[in-house]
Design goal:
Elements: H1 7-11, E1 20-21, H2 29-46, E2 54-60, E3 63-70, H3 73-77, H4 82-95, E4 98-105, H5 113-125, H6 130-144, E5 148-155, E6 164-171, E7 180-191, E8 194-206, H7 223-230
Helix pairs in contact: 5-6
Length: about 230
């Protein structure tokens, strides 16, 4: 069997929080789902230069709170917060609801899979050698503190006539370990030769026994952990 389970969806409500957090009736649920997709699409389209790895959305009554994680907060905020106010007004027109913006700075972009994928995409569009690009991205992530990295690119690599798959992996990437802090992201690079798909897995360590995972479920000590401690 191939790896067909999304690593983030696999861990939702266990070690990963939901990206959209709200409750709705059957009547309102489809409307809210479409609104969330419009918000994310709008941010992806108009604020691509702000290096945004993920967007989280919360709803309380008629107020929508948008948490934007960004490696370049200055691009979003602007001088005296002018840009973020304009950004909020755009989202209010889009959703028809009151919107609150919360900008969260990403301190280590080399360990965010989405941002690593976007950096690879930019270099591939400049016709750089894909092997050198992948090796550089992996080395930077490991130097930033990652315990393991895996990157897969697929398409007409280097302008070749036939599509092929390029892979690189260093360290541990335990996809099936639920307590693992695993970040996963996909990016599409649109080159002159065609579209190249990019997948990135970054392993940031594991939650220890009894450690609370992002305010969700505490990790329980397994039988093997107890035996190791007794020995």
């Amino acid at each position: 069997m191939g790896q067909k389970v999304h690593p983030i969806g696999f861990r939702c409500a266990i070690t990963e929080p939901w990206r959209s957090r709200w409750y709705a009736s059957k009547k309102d649920f489809p409307k809210f789902v479409v609104q969330d997709q419009k918000i994310r699409s709008h941010i992806r389209k108009h604020w691509a230069s702000a290096a945004i790895p993920r967007v989280e959305i919360e709803r309380a009554g008629d107020v929508v709170t948008v948490f934007v994680h960004t490696a370049r907060p200055g691009v979003l905020i602007g001088k005296k917060g002018a840009k973020v106010d304009k950004f909020r007004e755009e989202l209010e027109k889009l959703t028809g609801c009151a919107v609150r913006m919360k900008i969260i700075e990403v301190h280590r972009p080399e360990m965010e899979s989405k941002l690593v994928g976007e950096a690879i995409s930019e270099m591939l569009q400049k016709r750089m050698n894909y092997r050198r690009v992948l090796k550089k991205a992996v080395d930077q992530a490991l130097a930033a503190g990652a315990q393991g990295v895996k990157i897969v690119v697929s398409g007409r690599l280097g302008g070749a006539e036939m599509a092929r798959v390029g892979k690189i992996s260093k360290g541990r990437v335990p996809c099936t370990t639920l307590r693992a802090k695993l970040d996963y992201g996909t990016v599409v690079a649109r080159t002159k030769a065609g579209v190249i798909g990019i997948k990135v897995w970054i392993f940031k360590g594991e939650y220890g026994p009894g450690e609370t995972t992002n305010g969700l479920l505490p990790v329980e000590r397994t039988t093997s952990d107890r035996n190791d401690r007794a020995n």
